[in-house]
Amino acid sequence: MKKKYNDDPGVKINQEITARQVRLVGDNIENPGIYSFFDALKLAQSLGLDLVEISPNADPPVCRIIDFQKFLYQQKKKLKEQKSKTAKTVLKEIRFGPNTDEHDYQFKLKHAHSFLEDGDKVKAFVFFRGRSILFAEKGEILLLRFANDLEDVGKVESMPKLEGKRMIVIISPKPKKK
Q: Of the chain's two ends, which shows fewer C-beta atoms within 10 Å, N or C?
């Protein structure tokens, strides 16, 4: 039997296991139960497989006789599958001026609508330049109208607030009903 190296620090195999007794489980064992460590290791070597500690915190530790390389491959595959299932949210920005025309507003509203339908968050902001900060209430009214128009596809995550020269509102998509 060739020597196998353990790259995973969380899993102990063969001689790395320190317990005197182990509980053997698995498909390739006729009598699952508690064995001495040496008997379990001999059984694994006779089958040409590895003794892998699955649950080290149990009393006695739970071990399985399996091919360790295949076990590592399956673990990596599970992690990759879990990673691919996590939702990745993207934040799209839409910029307004305090005196945005109706046509520009409708154009940006249509884009925000499609972003929210695609599952992306929308960060809409009014940028104040120079003395236009005097029209802060105009910007707030514009953002509230924007949030109200997108009410059917998104929900307001944060109300309009002034941060420096920008007034920002964040809208997240509503969960899709199945």
A: C
